[in-house]
Every structure is written in C-alpha cells, then in structure tokens.
Amino acid sequence: MERWAESHPTHLHIFGSFMKMVRAMNFDLKLPLYHEVAVVPAHDQTFEYINCHTGTGLLRCAKVG
C-alpha cells in the first residue's frame, strides 16, 4: 500500500491537488483526517468483487483456477 501511495499517478494527482488546497488555505483546515490499517489472518479474510476489472483491489493478486 505504501509503495502504491508513493507512486500511483491517480493517488499522486489527488494528493497533490489536496496539498495545493491546503496551502491556499494557509494550512488552516477544519477537517480532521485519519486512516486505519488492519492485519487480519488469511483464514478470516473474505473479499467479494462483482463485475470488476481483474486489476481491481486484490483481484490482481488472486490465484485463479
């Protein structure tokens, strides 16, 4: 996830646009932001993708067959 955040063009564009807005507001945001990461044992993980491109989410890592 960290590698993706550092290099994915869409994320870089969104983050860059956000930082421009923050600078324009003189870093005076009234919006608290946070994120969470959870590490879940493999046997407790369930993912369901319906009609999604094979590169979506974890589908690109899935073993099919």
Key terms:
single chain, 65 residues, mainly alpha, 0% strand
Query: Largest sheet at a glance?
Result: none
Strand percent estimate: under 5%
Helix content: 25-40%
The overall number of domains is 1
What is the number of E strands?
0
Cα distance, first to last residue? Answer: 26 Å
> What class do helices, strands and sheet pairing give?
mainly alpha
Number of helices, where a helix is a run of at least 4 consecutive DSSP H or I residues:
2
Provide the residue-averaged pLDDT.
84
Radius of gyration: 17 Å
Residue runs with pLDDT of under 50 for 5 or more positions: none
Could you give the order of the helices and strands? HH
Large-scale geometry: elongated
What is the gist of this entry?
The protein is mostly helical and 65 residues long. It is 34% helix and 0% strand. The mean pLDDT is 84.
Please describe what this structure looks like.
The relative contact order is 0.07. The protein is mainly alpha-helical. The chain is built from 2 helices and no strands. The two termini are about 25 Å apart. The longest helix has 16 residues, at about 10-25.
Task: Give the topology, please.
Blueprint (H helix, E strand, L loop, with lengths): L1 H6 L1 H16 L41
